[in-house]
């Protein structure tokens, strides 16, 4: 009997990791890193972060949020329809494969899944698969509350992830300005995976995997289903520094999630408000993306060439430049007492006295500060700076 239980558990785990979303997420994360490194090498002859960074951070940054969401969803007894979960995953799969991550927010996937389920119930009510049919989903009953609340919780998680991590892994890119100069923009395209445990009604799964975790409440049976939820985020910072812009975007997203939850809870008294909550989430999330993109396109380049020195577009991790506290947007005016205006002049000046490299730097506020750092012969890429050339 114990061997049977172990085999069922292993089968459950295998089914989760063989989920198309999980497998596609791994491939997409590798692809994101590959194309980022390729672009950085084309612009700066060196990559900012290793190519597998996106893959390594796919779950490392989001597992705690997934755990909290699973506890909240399960603890609150938010039961979802299994067909809705399948449609949600299908919408996420299409969104992620498209690489258009401005539309890869879970609020879009939840809304598309709800509309698809409604249309199936109206026009394909005779469809049945493994004992499930669209008619079992009461979109104007309990699901009118459950779906918006879960979508709102996912929006809050998305906002927190954007606020905390989006600015950490931005990738500088060089664009030509109207004056024919090359200025820097900061691109971020992230993918997060959240393995979330949901509750579905019935014993459909237990009939195929006898020892699948489930519980009964009265005469009704419920099963726990692990679902890989993907959250994509894409944005370009041009007129604002990314460490200033993205935390604001994150706050706006999670406030939208709170609003969706609040309106979704009112669907307990008026079910149509559940659909209004989803519409509010879609409109709010789209407004954030469109508004930010429009402002960034209309504004000037916050990191552009200056006659006063060499402008920093990026700093390699664990490099002498990072140890000196240099950040993108700052301008190196002189090195070892020599004025510099190009990358070649910068590194020629360093060679004069690398053991005691002294710099005069203009920070983002226009204030001048002095710093000194020892540059060892084995230090990667000399100072480890990506500069506008």
Radius of gyration: 25 Å
**Percent of residues in helical segments?**
40-55%
SSE-based structural type: alpha+beta
Largest sheet: 6 strands, antiparallel
**What is the total tally of β strands?**
10
Beta fraction? 15-25%
Number of domains: 2
Low-confidence stretches: none
The 3D shape can be described as elongated
Topology:
Layout (H helix, E strand, L loop, with lengths): L1 H16 L2 H25 L8 H8 L2 H13 L6 H16 L8 H18 L19 H23 L5 E6 L5 E20 L12 E4 L2 E18 L4 H24 L6 H27 L11 E6 L4 H4 L7 E5 L2 E2 L3 H10 L4 E6 L5 E6 L11 E3 L2
Antiparallel strand pairs: 1-2, 2-4, 3-4, 5-6, 5-10, 6-7, 6-8, 8-9
Helix pairs in contact: 2-3, 2-5, 4-7, 5-6, 6-7, 6-9, 7-8, 7-9, 8-9
Polypeptide structure, described:
The protein is an alpha+beta fold and 389 residues long. The protein has two domains: 2-298, no CATH class; 310-387, Pdz3 Domain. 47% of the residues lie in helices and 20% in strands. It has helices at residues 2-17, 20-44, 53-60, 63-75, 82-97, 106-123, 143-165, 242-265, 272-298, 320-323, 343-352, and strands at residues 171-176, 182-201, 214-217, 220-237, 310-315, 331-335, 338-339, 357-362, 368-373, 385-387. The strands form two sheets. Strands 5, 6, 7, 8, 9 and 10 form a six-stranded antiparallel β-sheet that branches. Strands 1-2-4-3 form a four-stranded antiparallel β-sheet, with helices on both faces. It is elongated, with a radius of gyration of 25 Å. The mean pLDDT is 85.
């Amino acid at each position: 009997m114990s061997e049977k239980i172990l085999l069922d558990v292993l089968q459950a785990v295998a089914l989760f990791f063989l989920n198309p979303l999980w497998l596609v997420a791994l491939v997409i994360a590798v692809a994101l890193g590959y194309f980022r490194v390729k672009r950085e090498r084309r612009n700066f002859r060196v990559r900012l972060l290793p190519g597998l960074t996106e893959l390594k951070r796919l779950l490392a940054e989001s597992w705690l949020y997934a755990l909290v969401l699973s506890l909240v969803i399960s603890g609150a007894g938010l039961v979802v329809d299994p067909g809705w979960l399948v449609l949600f995953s299908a919408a996420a799969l299409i969104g992620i494969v498209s690489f258009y991550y401005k539309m890869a927010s879970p609020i879009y996937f939840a809304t598309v899944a709800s509309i698809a389920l409604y249309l199936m119930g109206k026009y394909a009510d005779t469809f049945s698969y493994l004992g499930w049919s669209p008619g079992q989903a009461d979109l104007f009953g309990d699901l009118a509350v459950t779906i918006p609340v879960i979508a709102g919780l996912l929006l809050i998680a998305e906002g927190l992830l954007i606020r905390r991590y989006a600015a950490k892994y931005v990738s500088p890119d060089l664009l030509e300005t109207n004056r024919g100069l090359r200025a820097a923009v900061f691109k971020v395209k992230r993918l997060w995976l959240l393995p979330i445990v949901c509750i579905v009604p019935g014993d459909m799964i237990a009939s195929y995997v006898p020892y699948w975790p489930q519980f009964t409440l009265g005469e009704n049976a419920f099963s726990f289903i692990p679902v890989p939820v993907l959250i994509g985020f894409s944005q370009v910072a041009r007129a604002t520094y990314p460490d200033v812009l993205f935390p604001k975007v994150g706050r706006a997203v999670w406030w939208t999630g709170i609003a969706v939850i609040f309106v979704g809870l009112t669907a307990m008294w008026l079910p149509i408000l559940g659909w209004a909550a989803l519409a509010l989430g879609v409109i709010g999330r789209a407004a954030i993306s469109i508004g930010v993109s429009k402002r960034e396109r209309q504004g000037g380049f916050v990191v552009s060439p200056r006659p006063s020195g060499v402008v920093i577009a990026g700093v390699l991790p664990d490099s002498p430049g990072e140890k000196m506290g240099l950040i993108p947007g700052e301008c190196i005016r002189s090195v070892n007492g020599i004025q510099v205006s190009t990358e070649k002049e910068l590194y020629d000046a360093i060679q004069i006295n690398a053991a005691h490299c002294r710099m005069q730097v203009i920070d983002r506020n226009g204030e001048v500060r002095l710093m000194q750092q020892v540059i060892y012969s084995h230090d990667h890429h000399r100072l480890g700076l990506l500069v506008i050339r």
